Amino acid sequence: MPYAPSSQDVTRLPSWQALNEHRQALDGFNLRQAFVDDPQRFERFSLDDCGLFLDYSKNLIDERTRSLLVDLARDAGLTQAIAALFEGAQINASERRPALHTALRRPLGDRVLVDGEDVMPQVHRALLRMSELVGRVHHGLWRGYSDKPITDVVNIGIGGSFLGPQLVSEALLPFAQRGVRCHYLANIDGSSFQELAAKLSAETTLFIVSSKTFSTLETLKNAQAARGWYLAQGGPEDELHRHFMAVSSNVEAAKAFGIREENILPMWDWVGGRYSLWSAIGLPIAMSIGISNFKELLTGAYRMDLHFQQAPFERNMPVLLALLGVWYGNFWGAQSHAILPYDHYLRNITKHLQQLDMESNGKRVRQDGSALQIASGPVIWGGVGCNGQHAYHQLLHQGTQLIPADFIVPVSSYNPVADHHQWLFANCLSQSQALMLGKSHAEAEAELRAQGLSEDEVQRLAPHKVVPGNRPSNTLVLERVSPGRLGALIALYEHKVFVQSVIWGINAFDQWGVELGKELGKGVYSRMVGSDPSGAEDASTQGLIDFFRSHHRG
Ligand code: F6P
User: Which of 264, 302, 315, 466 has the smallest number of Cβ neighbours within 10 A?
Assistant: First the structure.
């Protein structure tokens, strides 16, 4: 189904212009004061759905901001775009493809057409095959060449074929089934391969080569290394099928690599790599947590899909998060956005959201090819709290940039140790509080005087102690990290990214920029190894190639 993205310039919409004026009017907006003026502010700007509680009251907004942002979403055609996303229209216009990750979590019986064919039966057939495979491994029925059960599953994949599965399987470690350990091999770095291989036995290891295209350099090189290692460890060649399987939409390439057809699970062109953990690319997740938990993950994401489709924009979590991002990026000049999980198990969420957001919305032209005149996706960064508090939070509190942040925190821990979780939670809340409240010059002076410092010292130190405050954040609270809630959380961010792409009029589902580096990489490699005698296009790259050639030892 072709998709006709709106070709309008969003900045010409009356709601955009109204937001511009409103932004000027909010110049002196003070969050501290906003809470004093409105005792209902927390209730007014928070919502609870899909197992997630979102507090967005600590943002530089009032009721009018929300209503103008919602007008903007409507004017930009968001209602139609959401329908197009779920119906399977070709919203990835440059590649003429739909982006149907939402089909992967829909129940059997739903119909989703791609080129006139209902894809739901294939989706559920793949799920059934995953279920059968996982059952065989977990029950010791899938055995290695020496008839021992599989104890280690190694996912070989990179980008979307790595970050999502790794996030989920590590976040759901408390749900891990006994007996099978999950590992991830992504980078083309011999050290990561060797360090992992040293922990494995070829007799009991199953490799999943996870690559939508089956053409990704890092993945193919690691898959070759794994095969070489298996053979060098004494694994018989004719038993390779007990140790290698693949998930790919390129069945021919996987077969050419030597993987048996019955060991290849499908992927489809209509699922983007960074949106693929819900497909058979999620096989290592299911291997780790079992198929019922994997289905719970899908159900959680499906609940968020329904919320996204049905909730009015004023009470729609992904829409609100997206609009807040637009508000800061396009009207306040914010260039980055911090993702700060306060949970050990969620520590990889920043890396996954980084790919999801930056590979999707790191674009400079609109769907129709015209240059975008406003900022698109921000830099996504961050990491686990409290660790970040002792590293980069300083810049959030006193740096010169406005950096909105999302705090993500569970109410309860799977591993209570004394009062650690209470302290973890308290730290999370106090960080968003400190960002909002800050410390005025008068407060800094009073504090220093109370310490008995001389007036000279007070005046010398006070400016350094001032924390401007008024810095915005969202807090997402979940009871505990469960498969369902995690599914909803990830789907929330997927939809947030989509909404922003609609507002900016860009394509969130292609990634042409990544290709240039891949192409140039081949030329650089040929020159480094001497198979191409010609010089590099520029003196810097050539100088570095020469340095490599004269110093390389292994
Ligand atoms: O980095 C570009 C990219 O195409 C990502 O979008 C994708 O997730 C990753 O490479 C891996 O691709 P594949 O699954 O085809 O190996």
Answer: 315
